[in-house]
Amino acid sequence: MLSNLLIKNYALIKQLEMSPDPGLNIITGETGAGKSIMLGAIGLLLGNRADVKSLYDSSEKCVIEGSFNLSGYDLAPNFEDENVDYSDECIIRREISVAGKSRAFVNDTPVNLESLKRIGSQLLDIHSQHDSVMLGNNEFQLRVVDSFADNAQLLKAYQQDFSAYKDATRAFETLQQEAGKLRKEFDYDQFLFQELNNAKLVSDEQEKLEVELNILENAVEIREKLQLAYTLLDNPDNSILELLKNAANAIGQAARLVPVYDAIRERVQSTLIELRDIADEIDQANSSVDIDQGRAELVQERLDLIYTLLKKHQVTTVEQLLQIEEELQRKLSIVLNLDDELVKAEKAAVQAKEAMLKSAKILSEKRRKVTQAIETLILERLSELGIPNASLSIQVTETLPTANGLDSVAFLFSGNKGVVPQELKQVASGGEFSRLMMVIKYILADKRMLPTIIFDEIDTGVSGEIARKMGKMMQNMALNHQIIAITHLHQIASSGNAHYFVYKDHSSEKTVSKIKKLTVDERVQEIAQMIGGHNPSDSVLVNAREMILKEQN
Residues of the signal sequence (predicted)? Predict the structure, then answer.
């Protein structure tokens, strides 16, 4: 349950803090005092989108922080699913920077808004003023049936099967489309593949062939130059090696006289050895250069083939040609094995559909089993709330598969005796919608282990004894859940364990919304004003006090 709420720098709220009672909390105040602003701030804790325009002071960040006591609610798995540490004392924090950037934290762990929504939906349920209208929506009616039937796990299993069915069907359809396209391209692709395959390309052969062709085309000149270089190095008559050998001997003789010159002799000797190696390599290179016109023609022919293929496929390297060859082979293989692949894909789609339909059938059966119990409970509670002649029929009809199953649910309702039930949105009045929603929230409260439920004027359109009975329902719900009810009705306001008053403070340059927990006397005064307006009479004050005492017993 919500143990503490802190709101700083949000809309008309400079700073507001409250610690709700574990039972039934009442919030009252004039229209526009800031009650809806509080709900907006709480909505941010549940993952609603933030807006920098909502900052009270545009130079400071907005902070909304809710502390929740979750002991006894078995919510640890929900936190584990989001990779967030669980604690019985959970703190959710939302910040909006002056630049409009939003950050969210659960137990000091940063989370995205989707994770925040999933965690928040397990902690707190807000019924806003406009949610009663949703009761006329068939998808909402389906969710009511599923909640009552405890279908969360069955629905999750079905949705997994439905997703697998959609994926398998999509894969089969895609393969069918691809098959038609591939069959059209098969002959041309086969020609291209055969051409590349016959070429027997090697990844680095182009570079090697170009080097070889360059040597073959210039073989005569290369041999002449290599021979000249060798002759200069190792001509018996007058060569560099012979001269260097003589220099080494001369320095050696000088070194025998003065040993310090021996280092120079060693350097000359090393140079002599290196030059001899170079001369040998030049001689070998010269010997390896063949003047072979036939080989040159073969190399040129091979390069011409490579160049033609590169141009044809609009690439620049042999490696890219090899990749094209591999891709063509893959496409040809698919076509050659297409019938088998189509059979496999179709079989997978059929099996996925059968699994999905099996899950959907189980889900449908459980939905149909609970409809009568829901009808009975709703009608019993509606009778208590002043609609004794109501009739309700929950129809479950089969539809095409959707993410919610094979069922469409429709609540057919009549609030009057002898009137044929029709769809809610066509026949229910505002007051009937409010009472219906109150009843549904009441019967579903224990089906979902929600720590906190917030009602924002769910009493719209009701008054008198009916409002008092709605207050009693909230009291009963508050035995197992924390209830926060925003109301304008004194019958409901007198039912609470704690009473908070929201008001506007105009004492500063800028109006701010504030909240305070009322003392017993302040509460009597507030309820008396709700009954008789400002400056209530003594009799109204006595009436208000008696009403509080009566509703607390």
Answer: none
Secondary structure (H, E, C), 439-508: HHHHHHCCCCCCCEEEEECCCCCCCHHHHHHHHHHHHHHCCCCEEEEECCCHHHHCCCCEEEEEEEECCC
SS3 433: helix
Select from 26, 58, 73, 63 the least CA-distant residue to 41: 63
pLDDT at 458: 83
Average pLDDT, the chain: 87
**Rounded to whole angstroms, what are the CA distances from 175 to 178, 325, 350?**
5, 22, 15
Which of 19-23, 170-174, 508-512, 548-552 is least confident?
548-552
3-class secondary structure per residue, 30-75: CCCCCHHHHHHHHHHHCCCCCCHHHECCCCCCEEEEEEEECCCCCC
Are residues 244 and 276 in contact, defined by beta-carbon separation less than 8 angstroms? no
The pLDDT tens digits for 267-308 are: 988 988 888 898 888 888 877 777 767 778 888 888 888 889
Residue 218: per-residue pLDDT = 76
Q: Which ranges of 200-258 would DSSP assign to H, the alpha helix?
A: 205-217, 219-234, 240-257
Rounded Cα–Cα distance for residues 214 and 222 (Å): 10
Could you tell me which residues come within 8 angstroms of residue 388 by beta carbon, excluding any fewer than 6 positions away?
A: 382
Q: What is the C-alpha to C-alpha distance for residues 433 and 344, in angstroms, rounded to an integer?
A: 52
Residues 95, 105: Cα–Cα separation, whole Å: 9
Q: Which of 498, 434, 499, 501 lies closest to 469, judged by CA?
A: 434
Report the alpha-carbon distance of residue 8 to residue 41 in Å, rounded.
Answer: 10
CB-count burial class (<10 Å; 0-12, 13-18, 19+) for 209: middle
Determine contact, residues 79/86, Cβ cutoff 8 Å: yes
The Cα 367–Cα 154 span in angstroms is 11
DSSP 8-class letter at 260 = G
Instruction: Find the angle CA(482)-CA(476)-CA(412) to the nearest 5 degrees.
Output: 100
Nearest C-alpha neighbor of 410 from the set 434, 428, 392:
392
3-state secondary structure of 29: coil
Alpha-carbon Rg for the chain in angstroms: 44
